Amino acid sequence: RALNSDVKEQYTRRIMQAYFGGERANRRHKPGRAIEAAHFEWELVGDYGTFRDLQRHRMVDAWEWPELTPHIGYDVPDLVCEAGMSERYVACMEASAALYEQMKAAGFASEAQYALCMGFKMRYSFITNLRELFHMLELRTSPQGHPGYRKLCNEMYRQLRGVYPLSAAAMRFVNQSDNLDELTRMASERETARKLAAQTD
């Protein structure tokens, strides 16, 4: 007999949860390969260094990016401000942009990209399948991740969750915490040191 909509939704959730891996113990427990058939195209704006980090993902397709320019601008990282180095940072970025413009005006438009600091922003796009998204978003939001790509990947996750909540719900190891005491590589090194010390006791 025909199922009502609530029962259909319950069955759908149970089927998807089972295929996505059920109660995954860690982010290395991957969902089934059938979800590689679902593809998503993303357009991001972020700094050049973050772009290069994300570009390392092997199963991401159709990368498109322009030549690097200073025209979209840059952000001053919070840690730089906290260290009282924001004025020096801005001076460095502005000097980099000025050198870029000088080289471009002299006919060295391609070479001028090398004059730019990696903190300048760029707009780029790529396509990834759903299974790779599990890997990318759970890895790149981990506590050891750089704040630049953590921010972008958390925004990707929020966008995905808004349209495909069942798929996003299965990404149990996306880390959306903003606690800076926990979101650093130093925190990971401290934890490793603690475990090593416990082994020698």
Report on the structure:
The protein is mainly α and 201 residues long. 48% of the residues lie in helices and 11% in strands. It is built from eight helices and three strands. A three-stranded antiparallel beta sheet has the order 1-3-2. The longest helix is centred in the middle third of the chain and has 20 residues. It is globular. The N and C termini lie far apart (64 Å).
What's the arrangement of secondary structure elements?
Elements: H1 5-19, E1 39-47, H2 48-54, E2 60-64, H3 78-82, H4 86-105, E3 121-129, H5 130-140, H6 147-163, H7 165-169, H8 185-200
Antiparallel strand pairs: 1-3, 2-3
Structural class, by secondary structure, is mainly alpha
Strand content is 5-15%
Rg is: 21 Å
Q: Give average pLDDT, whole number.
A: 90
What is the N-to-C order of secondary-structure elements (H for helix, E for strand)? HEHEHHEHHHH
What is the helix content?
40-55%
How are the strands of the biggest sheet laid out side by side? 1-3-2
Overall morphology: globular
